UniProtKB/TrEMBL annotation:
The keyword Signal does not apply. PROSITE patterns: HIS_KIN. Residues 1-159 form the Histidine kinase domain. It comes from Marinobacterium aestuariivivens. The keyword Nucleus does not apply. This is histidine kinase. InterPro entries: HATPase_C_sf, HATPase_dom, His_kinase_dom, Sig_transdc_His_kin-like_C, TCS_sensor_his_kinase.
Length: 161
């Protein structure tokens, strides 16, 4: 279970930008198989103290969800940048998005939107929120106009190395 793994592994200094790029490279082929373009734009040299296994799991869940819900011929954009109070990771898709009334519910384990025909366990965003919390990061869902979802993870400067 991820909770056990979070507690049992020590946080370490790691290059977050390299980890995000690694996940994007690993998911490039599955994205292409769905006819979704996966793009990464990140700032080099972003390091933080964290749990590598958990952060990678969170990143995979966020990017896989974005690919899964994107329409063929669209794109998923992953960005990593410094901001005034830390680092902002965002994953932007052009899928159906999430209704405002459902946004708080998608963080519950096994929650699946009514009428959702796409495969999945309903655990991805619950795990992502758990990992973000462990790293004192905030996770936020925003609408991507005219269509889609933006998932933002903000790591506070206190987690940066």
């Amino acid at each position: 279970m991820l909770t056990h793994r979070l507690r049992s592994e020590q946080d370490e200094r790691l290059a977050l930008d390299e980890l995000v790029l690694e996940v994007c490279r690993e998911l490039a082929v599955p994205a292409l198989e769905r006819d979704v373009e996966l793009a990464y734009d990140g700032t080099a040299g972003i390091e933080l103290k964290g749990n590598r296994f958990a952060l990678k799991q969170m990143l995979q869940n966020l990017v896989e969800n974005a690919i899964r819900y994107s329409e063929p011929g669209s794109d998923v954009q992953v960005t990593l940048q410094r901001d005034g109070s830390g680092v902002l990771l965002s994953v932007t898709d052009r899928g159906p998005g999430i209704a405002d009334a459902e946004k708080p519910l998608v963080f519950e384990r096994f929650y699946r939107s009514p009428g959702n025909s796409r495969s999945g366990s309903g655990l991805g965003l619950a795990i992502a929120q758990e990992v973000a919390g462990h790293h004192r990061a905030s996770l936020r869902l925003k609408d991507n106009a005219p269509q889609g979802l933006i998932v933002e993870v903000h790591f506070p400067s206190g987690r940066l190395s």
